[in-house]
Amino acid sequence: MPRYKKQTPADSPQHQDQTNESNRVTAQDSELAVSAKLQEALRALFNDNVRQMIETIGKALEPLKKSLELLELHCGDHKKRIMALKTGLSSYSDRVAALEGICEKLAAESKALLYRVEEAEDLNRETNG
Questions:
Q1: CB 14 within 8 A of CB 20
Q2: If you average pLDDT over every residue of the chain, what do you get?
Q3: 24 CA to centre of own chain
Q4: Diameter of the chain by CA atoms?
Q5: Is residue 102 part of a domain?
Q6: Gap between the Cα atoms of 20 and 69, Å rounded
């Protein structure tokens, strides 16, 4: 056996550096591939979680949506009733104003008649007395 091994191109320091660099690049490429797969898996998991949360929130809001619809119906009914009351009150207000005018007129006529009655009584006393 020879004491010194004959150096082949594969044994040269330059070739070993290239091999080491090649191995390092291959390892980095492998790590990047694993990292990309991990990112994709995380993205898919995140999307699934978001989708599930949206569905859960949607289901939780269903009773509120129905309650809101009922509330809107009741508000619409109350609005109609209030408008009907306003219309009715307006007509009553007009009638009350007319009645107040009649009362004032009757009060004035009553006062005038009372004055005439008092004058007639005074005249009657003067004539009889």
A1: no
A2: 85
A3: 58
A4: 181
A5: yes
A6: 71
> Which residue type, as a one-letter code, is found at position 90?
S
Question: Considering just the CA atoms, what is the radius of gyration of the chain in Å?
Answer: 53
Alpha carbon distance 117, 75 (integer Å): 61
Whether the model pTM is above 0.90: no
Burial 17-40 (b: 16+ CB within 10 A, else e): eeeeeeeeeeeeeeeeeeeeeeee
Confidence of residue 22 (pLDDT cuts 50, 70, 90): low
Query: Residue 74: CA atoms inside 13 Å, Cβ hemisphere, count?
Result: 6
Q: What is the identity of the amino acid at 5?
A: K
> 129: which DSSP letter?
-
Query: Domain span at residue 22?
Result: 13-128
CA atoms within 13 A on the CB side of 111: 6
Number of domains present in the structure of the chain: 1
Instruction: Judge whether 2 lies within some domain.
Output: no
Is 70 domain-assigned?
Answer: yes
Residue 8: left if φ>0, alpha if ψ -120 to 50, beta else—which one? beta
Residue 125 identity: R
